[in-house]
Amino acid sequence: MSGDHHSGDAALAARTRHVEALLEQRGLIDPLELDRALTAFLSQGSPASGARAVARAWVDDGFRARLLADANAALPEIGLSMGGGLQEQRLKVVANTAGEQHVLVCTLCSCYPIALLGPSPTWYKSEGYRSRVVRDPRCVLSEFGYDVPADVAITVWDASAESRYMVLPRRPDGTDDATEDELATLVTRSGLIGVAPV
Amino acid sequence: MLESEGAHPLADDRARGLPAAPQTVYAVRFAARELFGDGDHAITLDLWESYLEEVG
Asked: Is A111 known to be catalytic?
């Protein structure tokens, strides 16, 4: 997957539109239904959803345990889900600890839990990120401004099959008095991918 | 081997329209050193059962 992505993407988009038009012409899809499905799929997905799950995990140990054991089953407890697409994807949430920092990538293409978190950042899809973060994550995170301490191990999760991943960052110090809503505002998309501490 | 992720049809076969019976996918953790010869990190990959060979 090297080369000029812009012309590749444009050609693929054109073909997709052509197929869509053919399917509509032949009465196999209803354009309104397609729009409804897309809207439903995209409306729930945003980093704020991930942030809510993280904030809840920070204040509720039971939820945290359930989120880490089976995220797909736990998300509906707070009104979220990985559904909305053709098929609900398995989500695995991995928790940062004092000794371990997780970071996520899809080296093959750029798989990402869009049903929950919305579209992925452009840099996540770049060849530079996808090829380098598996090879030298400490250096890549440093380029994001996150210098992971030497005594913290890094684990890279490559979404190479059907599972999608999300990082559960560590709760920042000095937040004992914060409400759950306030805690959620501390969580960034980068933190959920693992290129930032939170 | 970290865990089983359930059974899924092989993506390569499904993309080519070939029959693809679900097979177990495993999360397997490697030390960077095992894959690249250097590095102090770990990498976890999701591997379909047919990617794996029995050892001994």
From this structure: yes
